[in-house]
Amino acid sequence: MAHYGTCLAKLNPLEHVVSHELFTVSIMGEEISFTNHMLMISVGTLILMIAMPLLVRKRQLVPRGFYNIVETICVFIRDDVARPFLKSHTDRYISYLWSIFFFILSLNLLGMIPFNAVFGILTGQQNNWYGAATANLYVTGAMATFAFFLFHIAGIYEKGFVKYFATLSPKVPWPMMPFMFLMELISSFVRLFSLAIRLFANILAGHILLAVLLGFIVMFKTFMVAGASIFATTLMSLLEIFVAFLQAYIFTFLTAIFIGFAISEEH
Asked: Which of 219, 216, 208 is nearest to 131 (CA)?
């Protein structure tokens, strides 16, 4: 029991998902911390800005390889996700939907690569340079906040300021109008929190579960438990790859719906 308690004390399933300060920089006299999640966001951005254009630069009559994958995803998002809700306005907002899908997907997949563990095995030193940025509520909250402002701005742009905010108060008897207006505003903010928390919670839970499964090897140190743990971790890793695509799709899908609600004449 003492050995078991010692192993539990050493294990921390949250260690690889929480934000870790790497260094601080001074900007205009203010000390700003640069974290591992900021590093992951920077890496994901560089991949999308540099590697993605290079990989799809050769356009062919019959797309092949990685270009074919990217084109298939883009066509699917445009025709099956955005167009049913945005209709004739699809081309105006599709660039954002493509960008947010691939950005979230890049961060999700980067968080699956165990660079910290590999570096620790090779050097014998613990580090926290890597991490799952989408398991940080501040990161998902920032993306959700941008989407929140986008669908309100889209509604104002398409309908005009007065007409758009008039739609927040449905045609009901006048004593109920203030209440309905308040409920519509609350519903608008609920969309923001649902976007942020759904992505954050799913990625966080998946990484914690993987850490717990691997932690069984350290706690019990038996061949049977190690084999079962590795097998379960492999299956969960495959599931997490699916979740990485699924959560990027859900965030994009819901954003398209919310923009459609804002610009549609029926809402």
From this structure: 208
